[in-house]
Amino acid sequence: MSVGRSAPPQRALPVLADVARLSGVSEITVSRVIRNKGPISAKTRERVLHAVAETGYVPNRLAGALASADSMLVGVVLPSVTNIVFADVLRGIHEALAPSGYQPVMGVTGYDADEEERVVRSLLAWQPAAIILAGFEHTEGTRRMLAASRIRVAEVMDIDDKPIDVAVGLSHRSAGRDIARYLLSRGYRRFGYVGHDWDSDHRARLRFEGLVDELAAQGLAVVAERRIVGPSSTLAGRETLAGLLATGERPDVVVFSNDDMAVGGYFHCLAAGLEPRRDVGLFGFNGLEIGAALPLRLSTVRSNRFLIGKLAAEALVARPDRPDDTAIINTGYEIEAGETA
Amino acid sequence: MSVGRSAPPQRALPVLADVARLSGVSEITVSRVIRNKGPISAKTRERVLHAVAETGYVPNRLAGALASADSMLVGVVLPSVTNIVFADVLRGIHEALAPSGYQPVMGVTGYDADEEERVVRSLLAWQPAAIILAGFEHTEGTRRMLAASRIRVAEVMDIDDKPIDVAVGLSHRSAGRDIARYLLSRGYRRFGYVGHDWDSDHRARLRFEGLVDELAAQGLAVVAERRIVGPSSTLAGRETLAGLLATGERPDVVVFSNDDMAVGGYFHCLAAGLEPRRDVGLFGFNGLEIGAALPLRLSTVRSNRFLIGKLAAEALVARPDRPDDTAIINTGYEIEAGETA
DNA sequence: CTGTTAGCGCTTTCAT
DNA sequence: ATGAAAGCGCTAACAG
Q1: Which residue of A22, A153, A155, A172 is 20 to 30 Å from A339, comparing CA positions?
Q2: Greatest extent of chain B over all pairs of C-alpha atoms, in Å
Q3: Do the chains contact at A58 and B235, CB–CB below 8 Å?
Q4: How many CB pairs under 8 A join A and B?
């Protein structure tokens, strides 16, 4: 049918050379126009831009990154994306990175340090300019790779340990102590605790330790404690509080490992005809939106997760080379009095 | 202090050539060992692997992707990461991609089509093998770029329109109709609706249209309707239901645009002393965990979000070249009867 | 202000 | 089973 040309046009995507040819300048000039770098005459710029539009040219950043040894990539390694806590951090990272031209590349570890090592290795292969990790619990292998790479490293969420480079977050131990102080000031004396897996959520454990420390300083202790094995969830919080109260222990307040669990506890109270605070105090952690929407606003601690992501990304972008000394950025937290404790 | 060597070792990261030298073979042989490609003698492989371990060599995928014209990258463009719905999809994508050697690269649009275009352009610069987008609402510019790129494109969440390449999701229009049928079968006749922004959430509108269509077929209509301008939230659901009921309208059931809003409605009922179902039916959409943890399980529709992400990623990986014809993968949905409607 | 030259680190193709 | 040569598409460094 066709006249001697059997193969379809299938022309490859335009490259720098195509744009250069079309606009009658050299490749490097096109490159300069596109990157807005170096002195370019208005006339040349216009011609090049025209050719770019005409061809629909999209720069190949793989080639650009390789040639300039600057990938403009930031590796982001988080335990989970479905946990709103990390999703908020990720949003903060995105917000800070978007205007700077950096691209986040994600990895998810499922709360497992060995998986984290695998993820870090594969991200490092993309030659990122920096990497953001959650917490301090890394394998030796991860630490070695990070050290060898010489790139910037932000460890986020927690500041209760010594960072590799910079840590951004809050002191969970201190938050635990402040929860104890707050509840003591409200008159509570018989403390219960309902939590989730400490192996995967080290920070929940730190908060518990802070709580216990402060209680001990006042000659008190946790009188009833339950921890589930899996991750936190509303359903788990509901069932676990039910189990705890069924034992006959009568805490006057229950501290939950986080808001998800605490909201579940609230639901148990509703179902069991208990009035939060009057019958039993409920205290969470994180300051999620849902806690504020409950008939009685959940008493909790606001952890500034969005800010953590934002400041971490900003710190990395602001100083692309690893400083000699480590730093800590404390994003703080605030007690939300609420109405349940 | 030091003995004549002032500059620190600062040696660059090892590259293929270093490993080749150390193991006494050529670069290409090392490359073959690492990629497990081509015939290699057991002895050579062992020597190379040893040298890799010794140097701590990490392949530069930027260079690899450029040379092979195969990035093993999948662009993922979603409206939001903090919305659990998209986070679940993302998790499905991750799960499918992880074992295949593909890396997801994310972009977030904030529910804005122009921002989507910008994000798609910058992702395309990384020469991804495929791209995953939410929904069908793209700008002309986005469509042009996607067509020119010739890479595989999955549009996820929705299957109510014609896909560019492959669509993976459920029919929201049909879900809306089934919600109507279900509630009619439960005896409800006076339908209320509490929703959020349709401009950013086109699928919520499709569900509403399906609902209205089916009601019309039965000679019925929505008797009271309220929509907020912003995104869905528990608090918004609570306040909006309160507002709707305060008008004096007395719907016997209220359909919410999603579970977040419906849970908020539930909270209003608790605060106002209304018993869900007996006083007013509540119906959501998505089947979130929290709905199942409420004192009365929320009546809703399970949208298989994890599955959507998983199947989309699998479909793309399974066939790296764009097929001639488009396809639709229906992940379906299930009515969760629950106890609130 | 613009261009030339020489790679970046890897993989393809074609030999041997 | 292994290697040599060429080049992916771009940018740094140095002219001019």
Answers
A1: A172
A2: 94
A3: no
A4: 126
Residue A302, strand partner residues: A286, A334
**CA-angle at A101, arms to A99 and A103, nearest 5°:** 110
Say which nucleotide is closest to residue B43, CA to C1' distance.
D1
Residues of A with Cβ-Cβ distance to B126 under 8 angstroms: 61-62, 103
Structure tokens at B53: 């371990």
pLDDT tens for each residue of B248-259: 889 999 999 999
> Is the distance from CB of B328 to CB of B311 less than 8 angstroms?
no
Neighbours of B218 (CB within 10 A): 11
Q: CA B244 to CA A187: how far, in whole Å?
A: 40
> Residue B58 carries which side chain, given as an amino acid letter?
V
**Does any CB of chain A come closer than 8 Å to the CB of residue B302?**
no
Question: Mean pLDDT in chain A?
Answer: 94
Q: Which residues pair with B157 in a beta bridge?
A: B169
Interface check A121 vs B, CB under 8 A: yes
Asked if A47 and A24 count as a contact pair (C-beta separation under 8 A), the reply is: yes
Residue A165 to residue B178: CA distance in whole angstroms: 55
CA distance A216 to chain B (A): 34
What is the reported pLDDT for B101?
87
Task: Give the number of other CB atoms < 10 A from CB of residue B88.
Answer: 21
Quick: pLDDT tens for B203-230: 999 999 999 999 999 999 999 999 999 9
pLDDT of res. B11 = 63
- pLDDT (tens digit per residue) in A25-45: 999 999 999 999 989 999 999
A59 neighbourhood in chain B, CB within 8 Å: 125
- Cβ–Cβ < 8 Å for A223, A190: yes
The answer to whether B283 and B341 are in contact (CB under 8 A) is yes
Q: Protein B36 CA to nucleic acid C13 C1', in Å?
A: 18
Q: What is the pLDDT of residues B135-161, one digit of tens each?
A: 999 999 999 999 999 999 999 999 999
The verdict on A149 touching B (C-beta cutoff 8 Å) is yes
> Residue A134: which H helix or E strand, with range?
strand A130-134
**Percentage of chain B exceeding pLDDT 90:** 92
Which DSSP string corresponds to B202-264?
A: HHHHHHHHHHHHHHHHTT--EEEEEE-SS---HHHHHHHHHHHHHTT---SEEEESSHHHHHH
Q: What angle do CA A276, A282, A283 make, to 5 degrees?
A: 150
In chain B, residues 27-66 whose CB comes closer than 8 Å to chain A? 56, 58-63, 65-66
